[in-house]
C-alpha cells in the first residue's frame, strides 16, 4: 500500500508529504511518504440509511458507470443523475445499497461473472442483506416461541442491523478490497426454483381468472396457507432431491437444495426439545397466529392485489421476477429506509387495502416516481454534516 493525496504537512519532518494510507472502521491511517511517520485519525460518526435496489436498477447504474449503456436508451438522463446522486450520497457515508440473495436475475445479460460481482459491490459498502430465507426463519422462530408459550402473536422489532451482515456505519475503504464478498448468493439452483416459480404463478393466475376471485378471497386464502404452502414446498424439495439422487447426471446434484428440509428439521427439533403436550411443528404450521408473520403477511397482500388484477380482467405482467420482487418487499420493507422496485409492484402497494392495512418503514420508489427518488438521494447527500463532508472530500475526492 502507498499514501494517497491530498498531502498535508507532516508533523514530524514538516514536508507536505502526509497522505492517507488506509481507511478502516472509523479510523483513517495517515503516513508520511517522506519520513514514514504515521498516525491514526478518528473519523466522525455516521448513521447510514439502507436502501434496497432492484436488480434492474443495479444493472442500469453499473452500465451508466462503465458507459456501456446503449446511447439513447430510455431514461438516459435519469440514470446519469441517479448514478451521480447515489454516488455522492454513498461517498458522503449517508447510505448503502446492500446486495441480496435476490440479486441474481438471469434475465439480465452480464458479460462475465466478475462484471456481475463488480456491479453488486458498486454501492454495497461490502454489506449484504441476510438472505430472505434466514429472515423468514427468524420470524418463524419468534412465532414458534410465542405459540409454545401460549402467548399472543409477538410484535417484532425491525432493526435494520439485525438483517445486515457487516457493520453498517464504518467508513468505506479507499482501496476496494473484497475479501469478504460472499458470492454464494449467485449460486445455481436459484435458476431452477425460478422456473418452477414462474410455472406455479401461471397456474395460480389461471385459477384466479377462472374463479373470478375477489381481493378478499385471495387474501384470506393466502394468509391462511402458511402451513399448506410450507408442506407443499417441502414435498416439492424432497421429490426433487430424490430425483436428482436417482439420476446419473452429476450436474443435477449441484441443483439440490436442502434448505426447507433443514429449516423444518430444526423447527421440529425445537418442539421435541420443549415437549409441550399437544404442540408440534406440524400443529404450529397451522396456527392462525402465523397470519401475522410480517414477511408472510406482506407477501399475501401482494399476491392478493396481483390476483385481483388478473381476475378483474387486467393483464398484469406475470414473470418469475415479480415473485422475487414480492419476496424482497415482504422481507425487507419493514426494515429498510427505502426501496426502488419494479413499477408494477410499486403500484400494487398503492392499492387500497395494501396502503391501509400494511405498515412498513420503507419509502417505495419506482420508475413511476423517479424524480422523487433523485430528490431523496439528493437530500441524503445534503444531510451530511460539514465535518463528514470534509473528511469524505479528503478521503474519496467527493465534492464538498
Ligand atoms: Zn514526515
Structure described in brief:
Helix content is 50%, strand content 11%.
Strand content: 5-15%
Q: Helix count, per DSSP? A: 16
User: Could you name the ranges where pLDDT drops below 50 across 5 or more consecutive residues?
Assistant: 177-191
Task: Using the CA coordinates, give the radius of gyration.
Answer: 24 Å
Number of strands: 10
Order of H and E elements:
EEEEEHHEHEHEHHHHHHHHEHHEHH
Say which molecules are bound, naming each kind only once. Answer: zinc ion
Largest sheet: 4 strands, antiparallel
Mean pLDDT: 88
Morphology call: globular
Lateral strand order in the biggest sheet? 1-2-3-4
Structural class: alpha/beta
Helix content: 40-55%
Distance between the termini: 26 Å
Summarize the helices and strands and which ones pair or pack.
Layout: E1 4-9, E2 16-24, E3 27-32, E4 38-42, E5 49-53, H1 55-65, H2 76-91, E6 95-96, H3 113-121, E7 128-129, H4 132-148, E8 164-165, H5 190-211, H6 215-223, H7 226-246, H8 250-254, H9 259-274, H10 281-285, H11 294-311, H12 320-332, E9 338-340, H13 343-349, H14 352-357, E10 363-365, H15 370-382, H16 386-396
The protein binds zinc ion.
What does this structure look like?
With 400 residues, this protein is of the alpha/beta class. The protein has a domain of 39 residues. The protein is 50% helix and 11% strand. It is built from 16 helices and 10 strands. The strands form 3 sheets. It has a 4-stranded antiparallel β-sheet with strand order 1-2-3-4, with no helix packed on it. A 4-stranded parallel β-sheet has the order 6-5-9-10, with helices on both faces. Helix 1 packs across helix 2, helix 4 packs parallel to helix 9 and helix 6 packs antiparallel against helix 11. It is globular, with a radius of gyration of 24 Å. The two termini are 26 Å apart. About 4% of the residues have low confidence. The structure holds zinc ion (ZN).
Amino acid at each position: 500500500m502507498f499514501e494517497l493525496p491530498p498531502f498535508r504537512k507532516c508533523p514530524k519532518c514538516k514536508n507536505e508529504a502526509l497522505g492517507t494510507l488506509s481507511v478502516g472502521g472509523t479510523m483513517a491511517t495517515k503516513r508520511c511518504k517522506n519520513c514514514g511517520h504515521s498516525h491514526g485519525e478518528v473519523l466522525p460518526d455516521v448513521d447510514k440509511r439502507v436502501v434496497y435496489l432492484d436488480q434492474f436498477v443495479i444493472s442500469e447504474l453499473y452500465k451508466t458507470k462503465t458507459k456501456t449503456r446503449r446511447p439513447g436508451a430510455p431514461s438516459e438522463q435519469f440514470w446519469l443523475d441517479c448514478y451521480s446522486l447515489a454516488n455522492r450520497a454513498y461517498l458522503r457515508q449517508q447510505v448503502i445499497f446492500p446486495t441480496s440473495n435476490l440479486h441474481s436475475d438471469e434475465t439480465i445479460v452480464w458479460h462475465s461473472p466478475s462484471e456481475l460481482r463488480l456491479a453488486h459491490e458498486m454501492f454495497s459498502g461490502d454489506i449484504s442483506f441476510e438472505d430472505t430465507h434466514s429472515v423468514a426463519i427468524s420470524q418463524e422462530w419468534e412465532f414458534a416461541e410465542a405459540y409454545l408459550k401460549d402467548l399472543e402473536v409477538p410484535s417484532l422489532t425491525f432493526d435494520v442491523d439485525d438483517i445486515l451482515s457487516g457493520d453498517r456505519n464504518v467508513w468505506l475503504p479507499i482501496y476496494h478490497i473484497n475479501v469478504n464478498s460472499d458470492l454464494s448468493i449467485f449460486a445455481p439452483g436459484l435458476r431452477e426454483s425460478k422456473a418452477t416459480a414462474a410455472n406455479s404463478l401461471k397456474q395460480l393466475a389461471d385459477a384466479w381468472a377462472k374463479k373470478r376471485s375477489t381481493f378478499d378471497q385471495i387474501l384470506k386464502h393466502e394468509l391462511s396457507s402458511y402451513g399448506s404452502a410450507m408442506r407443499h414446498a417441502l414435498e416439492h424439495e424432497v421429490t426433487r432431491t430424490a430425483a436428482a439422487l436417482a439420476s446419473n447426471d452429476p450436474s443435477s446434484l449441484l441443483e439440490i437444495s436442502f434448505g426447507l428440509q433443514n429449516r423444518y428439521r430444526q423447527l421440529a427439533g425445537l418442539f421435541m426439545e420443549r415437549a409441550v403436550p399437544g404442540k408440534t411443528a406440524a400443529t404450529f404450521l397451522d396456527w392462525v397466529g402465523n397470519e401475522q408473520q410480517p414477511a408472510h403477511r406482506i407477501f399475501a397482500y401482494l399476491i392478493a392485489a396481483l390476483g385481483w388484477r388478473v381476475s378483474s380482467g387486467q393483464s398484469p405482467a406475470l414473470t418469475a421476477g415479480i415473485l422475487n420482487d414480492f419476496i424482497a418487499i415482504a422481507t425487507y420493507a419493514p426494515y429498510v429506509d427505502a426501496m426502488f422496485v419494479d413499477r408494477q409492484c410499486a403500484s400494487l402497494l398503492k392499492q387500497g387495502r395494501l396502503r391501509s392495512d400494511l405498515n412498513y418503514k420503507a419509502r417505495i420508489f419506482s420508475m413511476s416516481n423517479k424524480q422523487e427518488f433523485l430528490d431523496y438521494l439528493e437530500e441524503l447527500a445534503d444531510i451530511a454534516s460539514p465535518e463528514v463532508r470534509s473528511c469524505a472530500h479528503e478521503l474519496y475526492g467527493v465534492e464538498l
